[in-house]
Design a protein that fits this description.
With 281 residues, this protein is α+β, with helices and mostly antiparallel strands. It is built from four helices and 16 strands. The strands form five sheets. Strands 6, 9, 12, 13, 15 and 16 form a six-stranded antiparallel β-sheet that branches. A three-stranded mixed β-sheet has the order 2-1-3, with helices on both faces. A hairpin with a 2-residue loop joins strand 7 and strand 8.
Length: 281
């Protein structure tokens, strides 16, 4: 009888422990308890270089946009002969920013248009939680569907054959990009002078630079659906940054599009985003 009771007690403890483990992701954050904002964010992706003679003025315009609204978020991707460029930023530029011209900003900096976008309720949004264990960052990202999201639409690809538009479907997927950014990087800007560079992309944490795929192309999602992804990042092994106190993690929902006539992504659209200051840990 005693052995039976002991077995029952051990079984209860094991079941209780497994339940707690399921509720807690590796970062120590309870994904179910993470509250995703129902407000839109506006993402500005800047292609830039310290050597670029016209990029200083573009940075002023971007800073005005950031100052205009607290929900404008920015990532600067440096390229060329630049102290803040590396193989990881080149991956990003090659995959996402196809224009060879400088400066290039993906996303509007017009105040009135930003106000219009930010007043709209988002179809989805992402929330970050970051813990630090020594040199390891443990990151939880939660995406929640907040509105009616269409995974396919007719005529979205705009394919023409013999001058006539073909009725094809544009299938969408939801991707999640996680990036390491750094503030407070001092370096002169060409034709501008001394400048402190902020929101500088240093590395990406996902397997794919354009973001890990959360849903398949055309996979239907419903209001209230949530998706959680977990990442670990070793600050010692990945020493792209200069000062971890000035670093932050940025999560971006990247919408991928694909025509039914091709197997490759042909368009990427930046949706919701969230930023977590690593220096606060």
């Amino acid at each position: 009888m005693k052995s039976t009771n002991l077995f029952t007690l051990l079984l209860f403890v094991l079941v209780l422990s497994s339940c707690k483990k399921d509720q807690l992701d590796p970062s120590g954050a309870n994904c179910d308890a993470m509250e995703v904002s129902n407000q839109s964010t506006h993402v500005l992706i800047e292609q830039t270089g310290t050597w670029c003679p016209t990029c200083g003025g573009e940075k002023d315009e971007i800073q005005e946009a950031i100052d205009h609204h607290e929900r404008v978020q920015h990532m600067a991707v440096h390229g060329g002969d630049d102290p803040f460029a590396n193989d990881r930023t080149q991956d990003f530029r090659s995959a996402i920013i196809r224009s060879p011209y400088f400066p290039t900003v993906m996303g509007s900096t017009d105040p009135s248009f930003m106000d219009f976008l930010l007043a709209e309720a988002p179809d989805m949004q992402v929330k970050l939680d970051v813990k630090r264990d020594g040199s390891i960052l443990k990151i939880t990202a939660k995406i929640e569907i907040l509105g009616e999201y269409e995974c396919a639409r007719e005529n979205g690809c705009g394919v023409f054959i013999d001058g006539q538009q073909v009725n094809v479907f544009d299938f969408k997927s939801i991707n999640l990009g996680i990036y390491l950014l750094e503030d407070g990087l001092d370096y002169p800007q060409a034709n501008y002078g001394p400048l402190t560079h902020n929101d500088v992309m240093r590395d990406y944490l996902t397997e794919v630079v354009t973001g890990d795929q959360i849903t398949d192309f055309g996979e239907e999602v419903s209001l209230g659906d949530t998706f959680c992804k977990y990442y670990e990042y070793d600050l010692t092994a990945n020493n792209y940054h200069e000062n971890i106190a000035n670093c932050k993690i940025m999560a971006i929902i990247v919408e991928g599009n694909k025509c039914e006539t091709t197997d490759t992504e042909w368009y990427l659209h930046f949706l919701g985003s969230d930023v977590f200051e690593v220096g606060n840990l």
